[in-house]
Every structure is written in structure tokens, then in C-alpha cells.
Amino acid sequence: MIETILFIIVILFAITIHEFSHAAAAEMLGDPTPRLAGRLSLNPIKHIDPIGFIMFLLVRFGWAKPVPINPYNFRDPVKGEMVVSFAGPASNILAAWLTASLIKLFPVIVLSSGYVHRALSDFIWINLALAIFNLIPVPPLDGSHILEPFIPNPWKRIFEQYGFFILIFILIFPPTVYALLYVISFLFRLIT
Questions:
Q1: 19 carries an active-site annotation
Q2: Catalytic pick from 3, 19, 81, 148?
Q3: Which of 55, 142, 154, 170 has a beta carbon 3.0–4.6 Å from 176's, enabling a disulfide?
Q4: What Å distances lie between residue 160 and 137, 141, 155, CA to CA?
Q5: Total domains in the fold of the chain
Q6: Residue in 3, 131, 142 with CA at minimum distance from that of residue 67
């Protein structure tokens, strides 16, 4: 029961960091849309998608509510959308690195409780997983918006039409699943 509660807290923190960072980046670049929608917030409830959260609990895979933005409020809509999209995964990587640094700086305090150590390790892993997964260049993930200017138009149309099916394939095809887990594990070992 305690481990489940800690997992819920860790997930909530990780997705809140991710979605808040999208909103904050949009605000800094001149788009008030996230703020007006109430998404420029560190309150996890603002970012929860009920079905996505239930999926996190049941199968350890889910999603948050996407942050609404209006790229036409940016001085350069293409670059602005790239920056806002990159802000989410970048914030998760930063959160993972800071948490790993905390464990290294204060090992006695962290290791004094198995639950605290487990929660912090899970927090690192989940943040890295969110970052790497969201960098996949398939709609609706952040990676597709980051690379959109560099993708030829015929490919864009294919990704837009079949992005969901491509994503499902990536998640159920063992080689791609193992590749994702390998990258996440490699980064986890690198920073911890």
C-alpha cells in the first residue's frame, strides 16, 4: 500500500513538472493560452487526465492533459513551438539529474529510509522515461513538434494520419520496447 501511494505521488510530481514546463515556456515566449486555461500551475490536479491517470495505476503507462498553446502568439511560431515542446522532456531530465545529485550529496539521509530511497529512485526513472518517450518523433508526442520543421511534407502527412498506430506499434513491438528501456536504463545508470 505504501509503495502504491509513493508511486502515485512520484507520477503526479513527474507529470506536473513536465506539463508546467510546457506552460511556463509558452508564457515566457509570449503565449498566455496555458495561463488563461489554468495550466501555468504546479497543482497536479490541473494536469491530470482521468483516463490517463487510471492507466498509469493499472498498467504503469498513461498520459496527462496536454497543455493548450497558440503558436501564433510567438514571435516565431515554428521555433516557439519547438522550444515549448522541448521544455517538457528537458525539465524531466533536469529533475532526474537533480534528484540523483541529491542522493549523492546526502546518502546517509536518503538511505536511512528504504521507502525514501525507493521513491527517489522511482522519481529518477519515471522522469527519464517520460523524457525519452516524449522525444519519440511521432504525433502527438513532443518529439514530433521538435522535429516538425525538418520532416518533409509527405512524411508529415503520414505521421499525422497514422501517428497513433505507429505509437502503438512502438509500444508493443519488442525491439523498440527494449531499445527504449535500454536508453532509459543507460541514462539511469549514468546519473545515479
A1: yes
A2: 19
A3: 170
A4: 11, 11, 9
A5: 1
A6: 142
Question: Cβ neighbours of residue 144 under 8 Å, at least 6 residues apart?
Answer: 136, 137, 138, 159, 163
Dist CA 167 CA 136 (whole Å): 9
Residues 6 or more apart whose Cβ sits within 8 Å of residue 170: 136, 138, 176, 177, 180
pTM of the model: 0.92
pLDDT tens profile 23-63: 999 999 999 999 999 999 999 999 999 999 998 888 888 89
Closest by Cα among 91, 95, 120 to 107: 120
